């Protein structure tokens, strides 16, 4: 993939404010640059200006408790209130066990920032009359505290400067920043949730010039760039800018897809060939069906007559609607009239007659 040169097109002012940044991208798009070229520039923005929050990554892993070592710790120290008086001792034991687990999992102990976020209020006591945690500190009965709080699991918030993302994790990348960019540029986007090295999120981007969807995963770019994933050859970070479904599973065989555009699914290295991204589009996002010599418009301007075969239905029904349409066909459900065409709509009185 040949990239446009970011430094020749953007100056420091262009990337200091989201409105200026998006306006520049719009101009490039209007001047004929392809969607892939636009996302090549967004990739370079991530390279130069965005950091990945590896402290939050540890918090995500603790929340998920997918790794056997973390699961052992979670069982030993339930993430809930405790009434013991040995809060500080338990806190240190908990941290020590998490350190050992993360050395096994990541090759590093729990970070200081993660400790502060997770345990900043550990051992805080709350009056029995102020059970709501938000009431802590408001109670005047300082001498009657009787509950000791456990780990709080608070997320570390992403960092923006004038609307431009400068630090975050995969969820912020895909569900917030990239989604907003696509909406503002009129580019079709679907967030994907699943498993990468842990719970993960990335973007599906539609390339109208090539009439295909590709995966845009800036977390993997940062992991390669930062040396977080060391053994990735022969693949490079640029391979994650516009990857096909086949390519993402070749580059990361353990990857799983659990949600696309908010719809549940399951795809992994064994069944990814069954994935048809179009099934996850919302009806409003569906493109008209393209034929070599014409485009079918919606609504249809003429009566198509009686459709008698499944094959004929597949030729004129958009994919998100096709399964439901075939089900109706198989059950031989018929209607007297239709409002699908806004011309010649029958009223309810007409139907009763």
| C-alpha-based Rg, rounded | 26 Å
Q: What is the total tally of β strands?
A: 10
Strand content: 5-15%
Which residue ranges are poorly predicted, with pLDDT under 50 across at least 5 consecutive positions? 127-146, 294-302, 338-353
What is the CA-CA span between the terminal residues? Answer: 63 Å
Shape: globular
> What's the overall average pLDDT, rounded?
79
* Contiguous helical run count: 13
Structural class: alpha+beta
Order of helices and strands: HHHEHHHHEEEEHEEEHHEEHHH
Overall structural domain count: 3
For the biggest sheet, the summary is:
5 strands, antiparallel
Percent in helix: 25-40%
Strand order of the largest sheet: 8-7-6-9-10
What does this structure look like?
The structure is a single chain. Helix 4 crosses helix 7. The protein is globular and about 70 Å long. Residues 127-146, 294-302 and 338-353 have low confidence and may be disordered. The protein has 13 helices and ten strands. It folds into three domains: 6-53 and 158-283; 54-148, no CATH class; 294-352, no CATH class. The chain has helices at residues 6-9, 18-30, 35-49, 54-64, 68-76, 87-106, 112-119, 170-185, 218-225, 245-251, 310-316, 319-330, 348-352; strands at 51-52, 125-127, 145-148, 159-161, 164-168, 189-195, 199-207, 212-216, 256-260, 263-267. A five-stranded antiparallel β-sheet has the order 8-7-6-9-10. The protein is of the alpha+beta class.
């Amino acid at each position: 993939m040949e990239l446009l040169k970011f430094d020749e097109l953007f100056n420091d002012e262009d990337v200091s404010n989201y409105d200026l940044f998006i306006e520049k991208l719009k101009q490039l798009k209007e001047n004929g640059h392809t969607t892939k070229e636009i996302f090549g520039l967004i990739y370079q923005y991530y390279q130069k200006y965005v950091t990945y929050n590896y402290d939050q990554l540890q918090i995500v892993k603790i929340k998920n408790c997918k790794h056997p070592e973390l699961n052992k710790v979670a069982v030993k120290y339930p993430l809930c209130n405790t009434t013991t008086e040995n809060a500080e001792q338990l806190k240190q034991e908990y941290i020590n066990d998490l350190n050992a687990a993360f050395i096994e999992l990541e090759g590093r102990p729990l970070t200081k920032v993660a400790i502060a976020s997770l345990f900043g209020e550990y051992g805080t006591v709350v009056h029995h009359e102020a059970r709501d945690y938000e009431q802590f500190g408001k109670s005047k009965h300082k001498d009657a505290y009787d509950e000791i709080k456990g780990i709080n699991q608070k997320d570390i918030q992403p960092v923006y400067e004038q609307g431009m993302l400068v630090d975050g994790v995969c969820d912020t990348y895909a569900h917030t920043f990239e989604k907003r960019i696509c909406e503002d540029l009129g580019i079709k986007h679907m967030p994907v949730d699943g498993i990468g090295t842990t719970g993960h999120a990335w973007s599906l981007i539609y390339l109208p010039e090539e009439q295909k969807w590709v995966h845009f995963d800036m977390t993997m770019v940062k992991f390669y760039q930062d040396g977080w994933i060391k053994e990735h050859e022969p693949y490079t970070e640029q391979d994650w800018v516009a990857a096909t479904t086949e390519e993402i599973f070749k580059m990361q065989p353990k990857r799983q897809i659990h949600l696309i555009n908010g719809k549940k699914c399951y795809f992994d290295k064994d069944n990814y060939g069954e994935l048809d991204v179009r099934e996850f589009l919302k009806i409003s996002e569906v493109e008209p069906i393209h034929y070599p010599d014409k485009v079918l418009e919606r609504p249809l301007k003429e009566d198509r007559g009686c459709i008698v075969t499944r094959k004929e239905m597949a030729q004129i029904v958009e994919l998100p609607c096709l399964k439901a349409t075939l089900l109706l066909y198989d059950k031989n459900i018929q209607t007297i009239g239709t409002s699908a065409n806004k011309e010649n709509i029958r009223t309810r009185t007409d139907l009763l007659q």
